[in-house]
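A quick aside before the break. I want you to see a complete sequence-to-structure record at least once, exactly as it would be stored in a machine-readable document. Don't worry about memorizing anything.
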Amino acid sequence: MPGKSRHNPEQLTTYYYPLPTTHHPLMFRVSRKIEFCYGHRLLGYEGKCRHLHGHNGVVVVTIEVSELDDRGMVLDFGDIKRVVSQWIDEHIDHRMILSREDPAVPALEALGEPMFLLDVNPTAENIAKLIYDFASAEGFPVVEVQLWETPNCLATYRSGR
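That is the input. The structure line, written in tokens, reads:
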């Protein structure tokens, strides 16, 4: 940070502040927001969400690295869009995300309704994990995926690093 020298107030100099010493490496993070629509219902649940219903979901994918690339970036935000957002668009956007065990699956299949089937209950937590697992498998150093199921309800899945 430029400032006045302690020895000569008329001379400008640059001060370099030492980085704090910690036990954890310093990290850089970027996040990309992705919006999509989906339907689901929860099995074994007694509330309103036991019925088929939909959400305008907002996913926030957070990537973390210890060093920036040669461009001074964690990664290009467009890479997340090209890979993760495209996968969401092609596989879960405007689809019913249901458990394979859901008794509604055969009827929806007969109607030709688009579905994405999970081996687990399609809770917001499990959908966040689904997206986390996909992004990680594609080589992104993901540390966290947040799924805003509604403007007031957030589920997060994060790495155990």
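Two observations worth writing down. The CA atoms of residues 143 and 159 lie 5 Å apart. The helical segments are 77-91, 105-110, 124-137. We'll return to this after the break.
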